Amino acid sequence: MSHMMVFRLSFFGASFADGILFLIQLLTFHIIFGQVDSIGGWERGEMIIFIGTFSMINGLTMVIYFFGISSIPEKIQGGGLDVYLTKPVNPLLHLTFESIHPGSVPLLLFSIIIIIYGVSELGVHVTVPLIIGYTGITLLMTLLYYNIELILRTLPFFFIGTGAIDRLAGTLVDLNFKVPGVIYQGVFKIIFYFILPYGIMATIPTQVLSRTLTFMGLLQALFVVIFFTAFALWFWKLGLKHYRSASS
Length: 248
Description:
Structural class: mainly alpha
Number of helices: 13
Number of domains: 1
Largest sheet: none
Helix content: over 70%
Strand content: under 5%
Distance between the termini: 36 Å
Shape: globular
Number of strands: 0
C-alpha cells in the first residue's frame, strides 16, 4: 500500500476510468430504454442489474488478479519468470496475487449500489438464499473471467507476439459486457456461451437475481466454469513445459 500510494494517480486512475465507463453504460441504457420497453425480454431493472454485475466482476478482477496476470507475457518473453520458478511458492499463485490493487475497491461499492437500485426497479423480493446464490455465481463468473485471461496470457509460451489476440479479447469483453447474453441465438449463443463464454459472465448472475435462471441454464454455466478451470490449469502447465528460461 505504501508503494502504491507513492504513485497516487496510478492508484486511483483505474477506479476513475472504470467509474467513467460505468456511468457511460448507465447513460446509454437509460437512453435506450427511453425508446423501448425491453431488450431480449429483459426489463429496465434487469439491465441495471446487468450493468452493476459487469462492474462488480470487473472490479473484482482489477482488485484481485488483473495486474498480476497481465504481466505474465512480459515475464515469459523477458525471462522474468525464472525468478518465480525458483521460489518455494506455486508460480501461478504468486503471479495471480502479487499485484492486488485496492484502487478499484470504490468501484465495488458503487456496483453494489447500482445492483440494489436495479433490484428495487425490478421489484424482486430479496432473501438471504437469493443473495448467497447471486454472490456465489458472481464469484464463479469472476473465476471464469480469470480462466480466460490466464489462457490468453499463457499463449506467449508458444507464440512470440500476442497483440492481436489481446485486442480481440478486449473487443469481445467490450461487446459482451454491454450486450446481455439473452439476445444471442443459434451459432452466436454457442460461441459466446461455450467457446468464448464472455456472454454468460454478467448474464447468469443477473438471471439468478431476477429469478429467471432455469436449472438447465445453471448446470450449463457450472459446466463451462469447471471445464475452463481445468483447461486453464492444464494449459498453464503445458506452457511451463515449453518455457525456455533466460539462462537456457
